[in-house]
Amino acid sequence: MTNFQLQADQVLDSLTTAIVVTDFDRQVTRINQAAEHILGVSKNRGIGLKLEEIVDFSDINQTAIIACVKQGRPFTKRQARIGTNQLQSITVDVTVSPVNSENGDFLIIEFNELDRIMRINREESQLAAHDTTRQLARGLAHEIKNPLGGLRGAAQLLHQELEDEGLKEYTSVITEEADRLRNLVDRMLGPNQLPQIALMNVHEALERVIILLEVESGNKIRFIKDYDPSLPPLAGDIEQMIQALMNISRNAMQALTESNTPDPTILLKTRIQHRYTIGSVQYPLVARIDIVDNGPGIPEDILDDVFYPMITGRSVGTGLGLPISQSIINNHSGLIEYQSMVGKTEFSIFLPIEDIEGDKVDN
Protein backbone atom coordinates (compact mmCIF):
# COMPACT_ATOMS: atom_id res chain seq x y z
CA MET A 1 0.00 0.00 0.00
CA THR A 2 1.42 3.39 -1.00
CA ASN A 3 1.70 6.34 1.39
CA PHE A 4 -1.05 8.07 -0.58
CA GLN A 5 -3.41 5.09 -0.17
CA LEU A 6 -2.59 4.86 3.54
CA GLN A 7 -3.31 8.56 4.05
CA ALA A 8 -6.54 8.25 2.05
CA ASP A 9 -7.68 5.38 4.28
CA GLN A 10 -6.82 7.38 7.41
CA VAL A 11 -8.83 10.35 6.14
CA LEU A 12 -11.81 8.13 5.30
CA ASP A 13 -11.71 6.45 8.73
CA SER A 14 -11.72 9.84 10.48
CA LEU A 15 -15.08 10.75 8.89
CA THR A 16 -18.36 10.18 10.73
CA THR A 17 -20.13 9.79 7.37
CA ALA A 18 -20.19 6.20 6.12
CA ILE A 19 -18.21 5.92 2.88
CA VAL A 20 -17.93 3.01 0.45
CA VAL A 21 -15.71 3.33 -2.63
CA THR A 22 -16.25 1.08 -5.67
CA ASP A 23 -15.13 0.89 -9.26
CA PHE A 24 -17.62 1.62 -12.04
CA ASP A 25 -18.71 -2.04 -11.94
CA ARG A 26 -19.67 -1.45 -8.29
CA GLN A 27 -16.94 -3.74 -6.93
CA VAL A 28 -15.95 -2.48 -3.45
CA THR A 29 -12.40 -1.13 -3.09
CA ARG A 30 -12.61 0.79 0.20
CA ILE A 31 -14.84 0.91 3.28
CA ASN A 32 -14.34 3.35 6.15
CA GLN A 33 -14.97 2.60 9.83
CA ALA A 34 -18.32 4.42 9.89
CA ALA A 35 -19.56 2.26 7.00
CA GLU A 36 -18.31 -0.89 8.74
CA HIS A 37 -20.43 0.09 11.73
CA ILE A 38 -23.74 0.89 10.04
CA LEU A 39 -23.52 -1.79 7.31
CA GLY A 40 -22.25 -4.51 9.63
CA VAL A 41 -19.41 -5.62 7.36
CA SER A 42 -15.66 -5.52 7.92
CA LYS A 43 -13.11 -4.23 5.43
CA ASN A 44 -11.56 -7.68 5.12
CA ARG A 45 -14.89 -9.22 4.18
CA GLY A 46 -16.39 -6.38 2.15
CA ILE A 47 -13.54 -5.34 -0.13
CA GLY A 48 -13.75 -7.23 -3.41
CA LEU A 49 -17.50 -7.90 -3.16
CA LYS A 50 -20.14 -6.22 -5.27
CA LEU A 51 -21.90 -3.29 -3.60
CA GLU A 52 -25.20 -5.20 -3.75
CA GLU A 53 -23.64 -8.02 -1.72
CA ILE A 54 -23.01 -5.83 1.35
CA VAL A 55 -26.06 -3.56 1.22
CA ASP A 56 -29.64 -4.09 0.02
CA PHE A 57 -30.42 -1.25 -2.38
CA SER A 58 -34.00 -2.39 -3.08
CA ASP A 59 -35.35 1.08 -2.18
CA ILE A 60 -33.01 2.80 -4.65
CA ASN A 61 -33.48 2.95 -8.41
CA GLN A 62 -30.55 1.01 -9.85
CA THR A 63 -30.96 2.64 -13.27
CA ALA A 64 -30.44 6.06 -11.65
CA ILE A 65 -27.05 4.89 -10.34
CA ILE A 66 -26.09 3.56 -13.76
CA ALA A 67 -27.20 6.85 -15.35
CA CYS A 68 -25.09 8.88 -12.91
CA VAL A 69 -22.04 6.86 -13.99
CA LYS A 70 -22.71 7.45 -17.67
CA GLN A 71 -23.48 11.14 -17.24
CA GLY A 72 -20.74 11.81 -14.70
CA ARG A 73 -23.17 13.53 -12.31
CA PRO A 74 -23.89 12.71 -8.65
CA PHE A 75 -27.11 10.97 -7.69
CA THR A 76 -28.85 11.45 -4.34
CA LYS A 77 -31.71 9.51 -2.79
CA ARG A 78 -33.28 11.01 0.33
CA GLN A 79 -34.68 8.91 3.18
CA ALA A 80 -33.93 5.60 1.52
CA ARG A 81 -34.46 2.36 3.41
CA ILE A 82 -31.52 0.00 3.00
CA GLY A 83 -30.81 -3.44 4.39
CA THR A 84 -27.52 -4.18 6.13
CA ASN A 85 -25.43 -7.29 6.70
CA GLN A 86 -26.82 -7.38 10.26
CA LEU A 87 -30.28 -8.03 8.78
CA GLN A 88 -31.41 -4.61 9.90
CA SER A 89 -33.21 -1.92 7.94
CA ILE A 90 -32.05 1.66 8.39
CA THR A 91 -33.02 5.04 6.94
CA VAL A 92 -30.27 6.95 5.14
CA ASP A 93 -29.59 9.72 2.67
CA VAL A 94 -27.48 8.15 -0.09
CA THR A 95 -25.25 10.10 -2.47
CA VAL A 96 -23.41 8.37 -5.32
CA SER A 97 -20.63 10.45 -6.90
CA PRO A 98 -18.66 9.27 -9.95
CA VAL A 99 -15.00 10.33 -10.02
CA ASN A 100 -12.67 10.22 -13.02
CA SER A 101 -8.98 10.55 -12.16
CA GLU A 102 -5.51 9.59 -13.32
CA ASN A 103 -5.58 6.73 -10.81
CA GLY A 104 -8.77 5.31 -12.30
CA ASP A 105 -12.52 5.75 -12.30
CA PHE A 106 -14.50 5.04 -9.16
CA LEU A 107 -17.73 5.73 -7.29
CA ILE A 108 -17.97 7.30 -3.85
CA ILE A 109 -21.14 6.21 -2.04
CA GLU A 110 -22.00 8.25 1.06
CA PHE A 111 -24.51 7.04 3.64
CA ASN A 112 -25.84 9.61 6.11
CA GLU A 113 -27.74 7.61 8.69
CA LEU A 114 -30.92 9.48 9.57
CA ASP A 115 -31.82 7.00 12.31
CA ARG A 116 -28.60 8.01 14.06
CA ILE A 117 -29.39 11.73 13.77
CA MET A 118 -32.89 11.17 15.14
CA ARG A 119 -31.42 9.07 17.96
CA ILE A 120 -28.94 11.81 18.89
CA ASN A 121 -31.74 14.40 18.91
CA ARG A 122 -33.82 12.10 21.09
CA GLU A 123 -30.88 11.58 23.44
CA GLU A 124 -30.31 15.33 23.77
CA SER A 125 -34.00 15.84 24.59
CA GLN A 126 -33.83 13.01 27.11
CA LEU A 127 -30.75 14.46 28.82
CA ALA A 128 -32.33 17.92 28.92
CA ALA A 129 -35.52 16.46 30.42
CA HIS A 130 -33.44 14.60 33.01
CA ASP A 131 -31.67 17.82 34.06
CA THR A 132 -35.02 19.61 34.31
CA THR A 133 -36.46 16.79 36.41
CA ARG A 134 -33.44 16.84 38.72
CA GLN A 135 -33.79 20.57 39.28
CA LEU A 136 -37.51 20.17 39.94
CA ALA A 137 -36.85 17.33 42.40
CA ARG A 138 -34.24 19.38 44.27
CA GLY A 139 -36.64 22.30 44.60
CA LEU A 140 -39.46 20.01 45.69
CA ALA A 141 -37.20 18.29 48.23
CA HIS A 142 -36.26 21.64 49.76
CA GLU A 143 -39.90 22.73 50.04
CA ILE A 144 -40.98 19.41 51.58
CA LYS A 145 -38.08 18.58 53.90
CA ASN A 146 -37.95 21.92 55.74
CA PRO A 147 -41.54 21.86 57.08
CA LEU A 148 -41.29 18.08 57.43
CA GLY A 149 -38.40 18.48 59.85
CA GLY A 150 -40.45 20.91 61.93
CA LEU A 151 -43.43 18.54 61.91
CA ARG A 152 -41.28 15.63 63.04
CA GLY A 153 -39.63 17.67 65.78
CA ALA A 154 -42.99 18.86 67.11
CA ALA A 155 -44.27 15.26 67.16
CA GLN A 156 -41.22 14.15 69.16
CA LEU A 157 -41.68 16.95 71.70
CA LEU A 158 -45.37 16.13 72.04
CA HIS A 159 -44.50 12.45 72.47
CA GLN A 160 -42.26 13.33 75.44
CA GLU A 161 -44.98 15.40 77.11
CA LEU A 162 -47.76 12.83 76.76
CA GLU A 163 -48.38 10.28 79.48
CA ASP A 164 -51.18 8.37 77.74
CA GLU A 165 -49.59 5.45 75.86
CA GLY A 166 -52.53 5.38 73.46
CA LEU A 167 -51.89 8.99 72.44
CA LYS A 168 -48.16 8.30 72.11
CA GLU A 169 -48.99 5.77 69.41
CA TYR A 170 -50.37 8.64 67.31
CA THR A 171 -47.21 10.72 67.70
CA SER A 172 -45.16 7.65 66.78
CA VAL A 173 -47.21 7.29 63.58
CA ILE A 174 -46.54 10.96 62.75
CA THR A 175 -42.79 10.47 63.25
CA GLU A 176 -42.67 7.25 61.22
CA GLU A 177 -44.67 8.72 58.34
CA ALA A 178 -42.47 11.83 58.34
CA ASP A 179 -39.41 9.58 58.09
CA ARG A 180 -41.02 7.61 55.27
CA LEU A 181 -41.81 10.77 53.33
CA ARG A 182 -38.27 12.09 53.88
CA ASN A 183 -36.82 8.80 52.54
CA LEU A 184 -39.13 9.00 49.54
CA VAL A 185 -37.92 12.51 48.74
CA ASP A 186 -34.30 11.37 49.13
CA ARG A 187 -34.93 8.55 46.68
CA MET A 188 -36.43 11.00 44.19
CA LEU A 189 -33.12 12.86 44.25
CA GLY A 190 -31.27 9.71 43.25
CA PRO A 191 -27.86 8.64 44.58
CA ASN A 192 -26.58 11.13 47.13
CA GLN A 193 -22.94 10.18 46.51
CA LEU A 194 -20.71 10.60 43.50
CA PRO A 195 -19.57 7.33 41.90
CA GLN A 196 -16.52 5.75 43.52
CA ILE A 197 -14.66 5.19 40.28
CA ALA A 198 -12.61 2.01 39.89
CA LEU A 199 -12.22 -0.64 37.21
CA MET A 200 -15.24 -2.93 37.27
CA ASN A 201 -16.40 -6.02 35.42
CA VAL A 202 -19.92 -5.37 34.14
CA HIS A 203 -20.51 -9.12 33.76
CA GLU A 204 -19.85 -9.53 37.47
CA ALA A 205 -22.53 -6.90 38.14
CA LEU A 206 -24.98 -8.72 35.85
CA GLU A 207 -24.30 -12.04 37.58
CA ARG A 208 -25.08 -10.44 40.97
CA VAL A 209 -28.37 -9.13 39.57
CA ILE A 210 -29.34 -12.54 38.18
CA ILE A 211 -28.63 -14.31 41.49
CA LEU A 212 -30.73 -11.80 43.45
CA LEU A 213 -33.66 -11.87 41.03
CA GLU A 214 -33.68 -15.67 40.79
CA VAL A 215 -34.22 -15.78 44.56
CA GLU A 216 -36.76 -12.96 44.47
CA SER A 217 -38.78 -14.59 41.67
CA GLY A 218 -38.60 -18.07 43.13
CA ASN A 219 -36.69 -19.25 40.04
CA LYS A 220 -39.78 -18.68 37.89
CA ILE A 221 -37.97 -16.42 35.40
CA ARG A 222 -35.64 -17.84 32.75
CA PHE A 223 -32.48 -15.75 32.39
CA ILE A 224 -30.51 -15.93 29.12
CA LYS A 225 -26.93 -14.64 29.16
CA ASP A 226 -25.33 -13.46 25.93
CA TYR A 227 -22.06 -11.86 27.02
CA ASP A 228 -19.26 -10.51 24.85
CA PRO A 229 -16.08 -11.94 26.45
CA SER A 230 -13.95 -9.27 24.74
CA LEU A 231 -15.64 -6.48 26.70
CA PRO A 232 -12.89 -4.83 28.79
CA PRO A 233 -13.28 -3.61 32.40
CA LEU A 234 -15.14 -0.31 32.69
CA ALA A 235 -14.36 2.67 34.88
CA GLY A 236 -17.26 3.05 37.30
CA ASP A 237 -18.86 2.35 40.67
CA ILE A 238 -19.86 -1.31 40.67
CA GLU A 239 -22.34 -0.97 43.56
CA GLN A 240 -24.18 1.86 41.83
CA MET A 241 -24.06 -0.06 38.57
CA ILE A 242 -25.61 -3.10 40.23
CA GLN A 243 -28.37 -0.82 41.56
CA ALA A 244 -29.06 0.61 38.08
CA LEU A 245 -29.11 -2.84 36.45
CA MET A 246 -31.22 -4.24 39.28
CA ASN A 247 -33.89 -1.53 38.96
CA ILE A 248 -34.35 -2.17 35.24
CA SER A 249 -34.21 -5.96 35.55
CA ARG A 250 -36.60 -5.98 38.51
CA ASN A 251 -39.11 -3.94 36.50
CA ALA A 252 -38.87 -6.58 33.77
CA MET A 253 -39.32 -9.39 36.30
CA GLN A 254 -42.35 -7.74 37.89
CA ALA A 255 -43.96 -7.10 34.50
CA LEU A 256 -43.51 -10.76 33.56
CA THR A 257 -44.80 -12.03 36.89
CA GLU A 258 -47.85 -9.76 37.12
CA SER A 259 -48.90 -10.44 33.51
CA ASN A 260 -48.49 -14.23 33.85
CA THR A 261 -46.42 -14.25 30.67
CA PRO A 262 -45.88 -17.80 29.34
CA ASP A 263 -42.22 -18.83 29.47
CA PRO A 264 -41.15 -15.55 31.15
CA THR A 265 -37.66 -14.71 29.89
CA ILE A 266 -35.11 -11.96 30.47
CA LEU A 267 -32.16 -11.67 28.10
CA LEU A 268 -28.98 -9.98 29.36
CA LYS A 269 -26.66 -9.12 26.50
CA THR A 270 -23.37 -7.19 26.24
CA ARG A 271 -21.62 -5.89 23.14
CA ILE A 272 -18.98 -3.35 22.09
CA GLN A 273 -20.03 -0.54 19.77
CA HIS A 274 -17.64 1.62 17.78
CA ARG A 275 -17.75 5.41 17.26
CA TYR A 276 -20.90 5.93 19.31
CA THR A 277 -22.21 9.38 20.23
CA ILE A 278 -23.55 10.06 23.73
CA GLY A 279 -24.82 13.60 24.10
CA SER A 280 -22.35 15.78 22.21
CA VAL A 281 -19.36 13.42 22.59
CA GLN A 282 -18.42 10.67 20.18
CA TYR A 283 -16.56 7.81 21.87
CA PRO A 284 -14.32 5.39 19.94
CA LEU A 285 -15.61 2.47 21.99
CA VAL A 286 -18.80 2.09 24.03
CA ALA A 287 -20.12 -0.85 26.04
CA ARG A 288 -23.75 -1.71 25.34
CA ILE A 289 -25.81 -3.64 27.88
CA ASP A 290 -29.25 -4.85 26.75
CA ILE A 291 -31.95 -6.02 29.16
CA VAL A 292 -34.79 -7.57 27.14
CA ASP A 293 -37.98 -9.22 28.38
CA ASN A 294 -40.84 -10.91 26.54
CA GLY A 295 -43.57 -9.35 28.68
CA PRO A 296 -46.62 -7.25 27.82
CA GLY A 297 -44.69 -4.05 27.08
CA ILE A 298 -44.86 -0.60 28.63
CA PRO A 299 -48.39 0.87 28.63
CA GLU A 300 -48.86 3.27 25.73
CA ASP A 301 -50.00 6.16 27.94
CA ILE A 302 -46.68 6.28 29.86
CA LEU A 303 -44.31 5.09 27.12
CA ASP A 304 -42.69 8.51 26.69
CA ASP A 305 -42.56 9.35 30.40
CA VAL A 306 -40.96 6.33 32.09
CA PHE A 307 -37.92 8.29 33.33
CA TYR A 308 -40.03 10.82 35.23
CA PRO A 309 -40.42 10.20 38.99
CA MET A 310 -43.68 8.65 40.21
CA ILE A 311 -44.61 7.37 36.72
CA THR A 312 -45.40 3.66 36.82
CA GLY A 313 -47.57 1.17 34.98
CA ARG A 314 -48.00 -0.98 38.07
CA SER A 315 -50.80 -0.84 40.63
CA VAL A 316 -48.14 -0.68 43.36
CA GLY A 317 -44.72 0.91 43.31
CA THR A 318 -43.24 4.40 43.47
CA GLY A 319 -42.04 4.75 39.88
CA LEU A 320 -38.57 5.74 41.10
CA GLY A 321 -36.52 2.77 39.85
CA LEU A 322 -35.96 4.02 36.31
CA PRO A 323 -35.24 7.67 37.26
CA ILE A 324 -32.65 6.43 39.78
CA SER A 325 -31.08 4.17 37.15
CA GLN A 326 -30.96 7.07 34.73
CA SER A 327 -29.22 9.26 37.33
CA ILE A 328 -26.62 6.57 37.99
CA ILE A 329 -25.91 5.97 34.29
CA ASN A 330 -25.74 9.70 33.56
CA ASN A 331 -23.24 10.10 36.42
CA HIS A 332 -21.12 7.54 34.56
CA SER A 333 -21.33 9.65 31.34
CA GLY A 334 -23.66 7.03 29.91
CA LEU A 335 -27.14 6.84 28.46
CA ILE A 336 -30.22 4.61 28.65
CA GLU A 337 -32.43 4.00 25.60
CA TYR A 338 -35.53 1.85 25.39
CA GLN A 339 -38.13 0.51 23.00
CA SER A 340 -41.22 -1.45 23.86
CA MET A 341 -43.99 -3.41 22.21
CA VAL A 342 -46.14 -6.34 23.20
CA GLY A 343 -43.82 -9.31 23.57
CA LYS A 344 -40.57 -7.35 23.71
CA THR A 345 -39.31 -4.54 25.92
CA GLU A 346 -35.65 -3.63 25.54
CA PHE A 347 -33.60 -1.26 27.69
CA SER A 348 -30.11 -0.51 26.37
CA ILE A 349 -27.40 1.03 28.53
CA PHE A 350 -24.45 2.70 26.79
CA LEU A 351 -21.27 3.33 28.80
CA PRO A 352 -18.02 4.83 27.45
CA ILE A 353 -15.04 2.50 27.60
CA GLU A 354 -12.36 4.66 29.23
CA ASP A 355 -9.30 4.08 31.35
CA ILE A 356 -9.27 4.87 35.06
CA GLU A 357 -8.19 8.49 34.41
CA GLY A 358 -11.16 9.00 32.12
CA ASP A 359 -9.20 8.93 28.84
CA LYS A 360 -11.08 7.44 25.91
CA VAL A 361 -9.92 3.98 24.89
CA ASP A 362 -9.36 3.36 21.19
CA ASN A 363 -8.55 0.17 19.42
Globular, elongated, flat, extended or rod-shaped: what is the shape?
Answer: elongated
**Regarding CATH, which class of the largest domain?**
Alpha Beta
Main pleated-sheet profile: 5 strands, antiparallel
Q: What is the CATH-assigned architecture of the largest domain?
A: 2-Layer Sandwich
Secondary-structure class: alpha+beta
Can you give keywords for this protein?
363 residues; alpha+beta; Beta-Lactamase; Heat Shock Protein 90; 2 domains; five-stranded antiparallel beta sheet; five-stranded mixed beta sheet; 10 helices; elongated
Describe the structure.
This protein has helices at residues 3-14, 33-39, 43-46, 51-54, 62-71, 114-161, 165-188, 202-216, 238-258, 321-331; strands at 18-22, 28-31, 75-83, 89-101, 104-113, 198-200, 222-226, 234-236, 265-278, 281-293, 335-341, 344-352. The two termini are 21 Å apart. By secondary structure, it is α+β, with helices and mostly antiparallel strands. The longest helix has 48 residues, at 114-161. The chain has ten helices and twelve strands. The chain folds into two domains: 3-113, PAS domain (Beta-Lactamase, 2-Layer Sandwich), CATH 3.30.450.20; 193-363, Heat Shock Protein 90. Helix content is 43%, strand content 26%. The strands form three sheets. Strands 2-1-5-4-3 form a five-stranded antiparallel sheet, with helices on both faces. α6 packs antiparallel against α7, α8 (202-216) packs parallel to α9 and α9 (238-258) runs antiparallel to α10 (321-331).
